[in-house]
Amino acid sequence: MSEVGAGSVPPRIMTGGIRAVVRRRLERVPAAARAALRLAAVRGRQIDLPLMRTVLADLDGWLHACADAAVLEVNEQTWRFSHDKLRENLLDDLDDTERRELHRMVALGIERAYPDAAELAPTLAFHYQAADCAAPSLRYSLIAAESALRQGALSEAVRFSRQAVALEPRLQVPLLERERSRACLIEGLFGLGEYSDCLEVFGDLTALHGERAAVGRIAPALRLVGAALEHIGSLARELAGRPPRPSPAPRTSVHTKLSYVRAAEAYVLRGDPVRSATCIFDMLNSGTHDGDLVMQSLGNAGVSFMLHGIPLYRPSHFYLARAERLQAQTGDARVSANYSRIASAVYFAEARWPEVLSQAAQSQRKAQQTGDDFALLFALFVRALATFYRGEYAQADGDVAQLHEMSSRLQNAHFLVIAGLLRSALALRRGQLARALDESTQTLERIRRSGESRADIFVRGHHALCLLRSGEHGPALEHARALLHAVRGTRPTAARCLESIAGMTEVFLELLAHERSPARPPKAGAADAATEAAEAVHTLQRFARSCRFARSRAALCLSRHALLQERPLPALRHLTDAHSYARADGLPYEEAVAAAQLGSWRVRRARTAAERRAGQQLLQLARALLARIGAQHDADDPAK
Question: How far apart are CA 304 and CA 359, in angstroms?
Fold first, then answer.
């Protein structure tokens, strides 16, 4: 028996023997103490002394009686069952009715024993659920979900939110409570990067207000037109100095409104800009009609971001200024964090690095204050991407490591993918090809496991480039074609797409050059290679119109494409543009590559000593820039 109590079971004792030993041990407990012992077993292995005081007049006497029977013990000043088998036997002997009653008694005892029972909401939700008490279980499930969100425990938040939603059919739950549970679930799913599930719950949320989902291709577009016209009318009234049309009552609660922000972002990340824009205009119209400054700020920031991606820069900054003014009036830290996040993304596309880093820092501070994990991850991502493109690779290493650590802790699949991409891109720029390929391979595998197939547009083209530089032309072409098919007919605008789209374009151009090499006989697939290369270059051009910081990369690829078409003058013009753009946008790596190619061009075609010196100076500039940022690139053979 002593061996059982100490947690070491003799090998000669079979299961039935262990059960007999445990039963004999429990039978030594006085009969009057056994009911409380069953209650303690339901609570857990460790004895909850405040709870037991609510049901026992003589707690010390009960503890010592159970200890004399070797059922309870003291370990580091904590009372507990001396072995799990003892507790398990007590639980096994309970029938369903008794088990439910004991769970109910435990939950009631915890509420009496602890003044702030909300801190134990997860425990209370569990016990009331096991007791089949739907109303208190739903209440504590929702409290537990919101608490988990504040602590960054996203999986827990999703679990408790789903539990609350599942209990609703058994109760007459007020609309506000149903909105809260779904809003919490949307926040948790979005933070985990589970965008499809997030949008499914958003559809359920809007259905609470009788809104029917727009299906097909025409209905969503018509709904967007209606929402946009409604906003234009409201804006015209405002600019004319006329008050907005009064709304008899808010059309949606604050919980629903805040969920529109996440839904708009999730639609963008799922490649559905029409529904995203509709969400944004719905936010703006709702805020205008209800006089809700919070929603007006969120809506104006959303419109700014949307217009910037078209791109319509002046209207974008008009709405961004409105969002800044409104967020200052609200005094709401979460709204301020959202504004800074949108502003950092808008400034990023324009390569305005000081503003980018300033807004990212503000967003990070506000996100830490409000416990908004997505905003915090986004701020870390923006900072890491900015330091990467500015050529501050040592700083970027630290930023990416921090992004990876927090994404792993929060189990956010989306930002884990971005961290993997940046680690691979940093390795590639440093000439660490094997490491770059390994990182991109692992990142694609992570995407496959997560089920977020849309995220591969951020990685696949870069992975194709890594494969190409490793000499694996067949797999490189396969991945490049897969990405080209995925973005065909879409308009990628996210800054994190650049490495993938530019990598895809470089792969097609390199393979086209390989096809047109004089050492190779003409092949039937040469026309396909030319068509794919042209489409890839056009895709990169369209991306650069939305994200101006990509224009130097686009110009470099346009130059290479013109050369392959035997058009040297346009090639030189694009190359000169690439160098000017990179210098203006503060992109040292792109400046070095453009300077190396431009210098090589001038050296090869120099007619005078002065022209040759100018070309050599550009080559020296390229080497100096590469040495300063710690990148690897053959400035003497720019084609590499």
Answer: 15
